[in-house]
């Protein structure tokens, strides 16, 4: 026999405290009964006056005994004693159902998950009716689907509603979660893992097989040898040497135990854009590269033409963004000086106009004002070349002695031997930065305040600087600084959900990185060195935006575990035999009724119910009648 | 909803054969059913006495005069008509008990009244508390029983008991001696013994019917008690145990014994009735055995 709710110490403590209170109340406050009598004349000579001495002993010991018995029974009912041993009472089982992406693999007539559901339902039927079961759906994160539930209908419904997810199984986290649940709730039964147990390959030398597992683990494995090959990831980016081309990298892996051969095709807008045949040894991974020249937006689909166990990883789709050139309006009397500079950048679409046509209402994103001072300053980013109003002095044969190298406008500028035939030293207003200076003062000034502007104290198209490396780099930096959105590098990836690692460019400020999900919510991330890490548990699109680069992760591919988890040797396997109905029985209802009966009897015999009179005694009355007559 | 009758018809039929009896000889007019030792206009010879001037010549024993030449007068036994009076205690103490003593007394009074009416006795129902209340006189047959029952039903118990005052008023109000039935618990603060002795000395024959509830004689309580006197409202706090209960019963029995001895001294009768005894059991038991009813 054992107590379900209280320990023996708690029970004895409660019993002794309650009994002491009842005993003291008996001594201190036995309610004085009131009675109406015909006369007091006989009481005066018969009864004793109440004294304190009398109150110091129990006047109605059987009443006290009945009350103590009632208290004892009620406390026992609260403690819920059960016949049998604790091991045989209702136990708490945690059922881990593998809902990783691999469970969607076909197996026989259904999927691996269908097999696992059948096993889970069969296991449920082997449990005793008093046992409680918690269903935990395990993929990348263990998610409890039910609480510890004794209602089999609820658990069975949760099992039937389980669907395969997109993440790989994290078996260690699931087992740790189950162990914590059992530790917190006590009455531990079994931790049952039901599934294929395909886990990602562990990074590092340690093997997951050696991870400690609970001693009460039971493993019901399904689908041991399913053949599958699938897309692992897709990367799309524009090469630096040819911004009009998308380079598409498709990675394919063979998860099966046999060599794999199948055609891999890439489609753009539904039309074939390339195809290769991949040949993979078991466990091998191969990457195929395709090129696609387009500036318009569209869908790129990679498809592996095979009929393997898991169909979800045979196809992936990435949406390509449209590449829009930057509209630049040039107001110059000598546009030929600037035309070579602007035409060298394929992302720039320049329009040349005479200064007289300036209205301030242009459609260009960037305005270049060549030695021209308009009446109305442009409302967009502007490049002022030799502005007449800001000239402090004019110098000739001056060398640029200093660049503000930390600024984006000086990115890549390493030269210090730039000779200017003539240049105008500019004045520096409040909030403006001197990007490049000669001895006499700044010759390149940047105004970070919106609208941004860059003032050049020399003409970059003149002969002295026209053929210098400084000119195209400086103009490219200026245009990127004025219109960063248009010059941002795009990288698109199709991969699986889970933990994603992103390599950052050098010099990226971690605090200026944005990781944005589909719903425009910012995802938490960590930056360690040059690597950014974030976690996405559900399929979708995540954008990682740094200063010059935007990487789009289309997390639509399932994360497939590469290796099979090997359960520990001491883990039980297979379905257990049907449990006998345990001997443990609830008797608290009877104890509660008995306790209430004791208290009721005490109330009837000694309480208010008896204040009036004892039950009539006919025999005694007749005797008295005979005696009196 | 009509009130329950005091006595069932079937029980009244059982009472038909009974008669109220008294032991004393009372003078009175012919018409009763108990013989008296006082001579009168009866049919049955009782004795002779010397003739006195003015005696009725029809009662002279002429045969004895012829033989002895002396006038002797024949005396005849008479069965006089004697008033039966019932003193009914209507004090607050009668409201106690289970069943209530007063209800029991009402029914008992009705039964005795019916017995008397059947035998053509003159019944006077006289309730009392600390004095005599309005009485009800009935006689001449059972058809007067309805009025008596109505009178008894309308009685209510309240107030205190004062037997001394009752005895004084009774002695002053009722000069003719007769049978006096007292239905009470006799639980006055003062002894009822002396006032009743006074009434007996006045020539009344006492039939004391003492009614008690179970707790009047054997209280069933135990422990700390707060008792309230039903008549005076006085309160008393006591601690009652088995010994105290025995002492109480002994005191009660001792008081009852004194009433019994007083009745024996005065030629009366004392009957103790617990309210738990049925009315039929009381009448055909103690009352019949005592000779109060035959």
Quick take:
The complex is a heterodimer of chains A (629) and B (294). With 629 residues, chain A is of the alpha/beta class.
Write a structural description.
The complex is a heterodimer of chains A (629) and B (294). With 629 residues, chain A is α/β, with parallel strands linked by helices. Chain A is built from twelve helices and 37 strands. Chain A folds into five domains: 2-86 and 591-628, no CATH class; 90-226 and 563-573, 3-Layer(aba) Sandwich (Rossmann fold), CATH 3.40.50; 229-321, Sandwich (Immunoglobulin-like); 326-357 and 365-482, Class I glutamine amidotransferase (GATase) domain (Rossmann fold, 3-Layer(aba) Sandwich); 486-559, Sandwich (Immunoglobulin-like). Chain A has an eight-stranded mixed β-sheet. A seven-stranded mixed β-sheet of chain A has the order 16-13-12-29-35-34-31, with no helix packed on it. Chain A has a six-stranded mixed β-sheet with strand order 8-7-4-9-11-37, sandwiched between helices. In chain A, helix 1 (8-28) runs antiparallel to helix 4, helix 4 runs antiparallel to helix 11 and helix 5 (112-126) runs antiparallel to helix 6. The longest helix of chain A has 21 residues, at 8-28. The two termini of chain A are 64 Å apart. Chain B is of the alpha/beta class and 294 residues long. Chain B folds into two domains: 9-25 and 81-290, von Willebrand factor, type A domain (Rossmann fold); 36-78, no CATH class. Chain B has helices spanning 9-15, 62-68, 101-118, 145-153, 163-173, 193-201, 214-217, 242-266, 279-290; strands at residues 36-40, 44-50, 72-78, 83-89, 122-128, 136-138, 179-184, 205-212, 223-229, 235-240, 269-274. The chains are: A alpha/beta (629), B alpha/beta (294). At the A-B interface, strand 2, helix 2 and helix 12 of A face helix 7, strand 9, strand 10, helix 8 and strand 11 of B. Strand 2 (33-37) of chain A pairs parallel with strand 9 of chain B.
- Mean pLDDT score of chain A: 80
Radius of gyration of chain A (CA) equals 43 Å
The largest sheet of chain A, given as strand count, sense and whether it forms a barrel, is: 8 strands, mixed
- What is the class of the largest domain in chain A in the CATH system? Alpha Beta
């Amino acid at each position: 026999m054992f107590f379900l709710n209280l320990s023996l110490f708690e029970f004895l403590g409660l019993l002794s405290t309650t009994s002491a209170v009842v005993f003291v109340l008996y001594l201190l406050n036995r309610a004085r009964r009131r009675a109406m009598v015909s006369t007091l004349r006989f009481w005066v000579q018969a009864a004793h006056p109440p004294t304190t001495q009398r109150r110091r002993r129990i006047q109605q010991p059987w009443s006290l005994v009945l009350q103590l018995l009632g208290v004892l029974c009620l406390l026992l009912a609260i403690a819920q004693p059960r016949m049998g041993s604790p091991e045989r009472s209702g136990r708490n089982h945690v059922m881990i159902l593998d809902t990783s992406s691999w469970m969607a693999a076909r197996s026989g007539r259904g999927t691996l998950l269908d097999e696992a559901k059948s096993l889970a339902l069969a296991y449920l039927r082997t449990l005793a009716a008093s046992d409680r079961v918690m269903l935990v759906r395990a993929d990348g994160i263990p998610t409890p689907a039910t609480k510890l539930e004794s209602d089999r209908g609820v658990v069975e419904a949760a099992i039937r509603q389980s669907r395969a997810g997109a993440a790989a199984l994290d078996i260690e986290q699931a087992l740790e979660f189950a162990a914590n649940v059992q530790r917190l709730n006590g009455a531990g039964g079994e931790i049952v893992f039901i599934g294929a147990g395909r886990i990602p390959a562990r990074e590092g030398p340690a093997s997951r097989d050696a991870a400690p597992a609970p001693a009460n683990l039971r493993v019901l494995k399904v689908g041991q040898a399913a053949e599958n090959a699938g897309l692992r990831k897709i990367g799309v980016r524009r090469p630096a040497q040819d911004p009009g081309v998308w380079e598409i990298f498709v990675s394919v892996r063979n998860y099966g135990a046999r060599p794999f051969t199948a055609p891999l095709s890439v489609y753009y807008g539904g039309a074939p854009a390339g195809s290769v045949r991949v040949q993979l040894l078991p466990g091998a991974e191969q990457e195929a590269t395709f090129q696609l020249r387009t500036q318009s937006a569209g869908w790129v689909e990679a498809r592996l033409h095979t009929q393997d166990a898991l169909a979800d990883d045979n196809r992936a789709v990435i949406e390509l963004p449209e590449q829009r050139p930057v509209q630049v309006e040039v107001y110059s009397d000598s546009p030929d000086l600037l035309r070579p500079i602007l035409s060298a950048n394929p992302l720039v679409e320049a329009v040349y106009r005479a200064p007289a046509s300036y209205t301030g209402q242009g459609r260009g994103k960037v305005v270049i004002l060549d030695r021209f001072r308009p009446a109305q300053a442009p409302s967009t980013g502007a490049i002022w070349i030799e502005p007449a109003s800001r000239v402090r002095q004019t110098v000739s044969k001056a060398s640029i002695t200093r660049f503000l190298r930390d600024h984006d406008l000086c990115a890549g500028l390493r030269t210090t031997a730039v000779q200017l035939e003539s240049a105008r030293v500019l004045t520096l207003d409040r909030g403006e930065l001197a990007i490049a200076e000669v001895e006499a003062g700044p010759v390149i000034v940047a105004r970070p305040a919106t609208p941004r502007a860059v003032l050049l104290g020399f003409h970059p198209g003149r002969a002295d600087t026209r053929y210098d490396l400084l000119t195209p780099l400086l103009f490219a930096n200026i245009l990127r600084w004025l219109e960063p959105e248009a010059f941002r590098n795009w990288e698109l990836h199709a991969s699986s959900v889970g933990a994603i690692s992103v390599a950052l460019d050098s010099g990226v400020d971690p605090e200026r990185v944005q990781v944005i999900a589909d719903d425009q919510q910012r995802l938490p991330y960590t930056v360690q060195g040059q690597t950014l890490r974030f976690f996405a548990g559900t399929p979708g699109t995540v954008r990682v935006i740094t200063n010059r680069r935007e990487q789009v992760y289309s997390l639509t591919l399932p994360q497939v575990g590469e290796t099979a988890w090997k359960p520990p040797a001491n883990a039980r396997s297979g379905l257990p035999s049907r449990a006998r109905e345990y001997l443990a029985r609830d008797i608290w209802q009877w104890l509660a009724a008995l306790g209430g009966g004791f208290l009721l009897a005490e109330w009837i015999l000694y309480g208010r119910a008896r204040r009036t009179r004892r039950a009539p005694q006919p025999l005694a009355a007749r005797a008295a009648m005979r005696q009196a007559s | 909803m009509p009130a329950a009758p005091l006595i069932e018809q079937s029980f009244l039929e059982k009472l038909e054969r009974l008669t109220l009896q008294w032991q004393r000889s009372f003078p009175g007019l012919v018409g009763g059913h108990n013989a008296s030792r006082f001579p009168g206009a009866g049919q049955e010879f009782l004795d002779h006495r010397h003739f006195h001037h003015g005696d009725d010549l029809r009662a002279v024993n002429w045969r004895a005069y012829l033989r002895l030449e002396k006038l002797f007068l024949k005396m005849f036994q008479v069965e006089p008509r004697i008033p039966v009076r019932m003193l009914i205690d209507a004090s607050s103490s009668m409201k106690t008990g289970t069943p209530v003593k007063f209800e029991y007394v009402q029914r008992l009074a009705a039964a005795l009244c019916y017995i008397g009416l059947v035998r053509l006795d003159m019944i006077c129902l006289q309730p009392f508390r600390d004095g005599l209340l309005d009485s009800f006189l009935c006689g001449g047959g059972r058809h007067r029983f309805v009025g008596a029952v109505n009178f008894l039903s309308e009685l209510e118990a309240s107030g205190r008991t004062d037997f001394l005052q009752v005895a004084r008023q009774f002695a002053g109000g009722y000069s003719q001696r007769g049978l006096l039935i007292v239905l009470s618990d006799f639980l006055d603060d003062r002894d009822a013994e002396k006032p009743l002795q006074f009434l007996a000395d006045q020539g009344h024959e006492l039939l004391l019917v003492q009614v008690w509830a179970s707790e009047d004689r054997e209280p069933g309580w135990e422990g700390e008690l707060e008792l309230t006197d039903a008549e005076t409202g006085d309160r008393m706090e006591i601690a009652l145990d088995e010994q105290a209960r025995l002492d109480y019963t002994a005191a009660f029995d001792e008081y009852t014994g004194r009433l019994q001895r007083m009745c024996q001294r005065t030629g009366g009768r004392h009957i103790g009735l617990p309210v738990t005894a049925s009315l039929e059991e009381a009448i055909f038991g103690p009352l019949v055995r005592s000779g109060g009813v035959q």
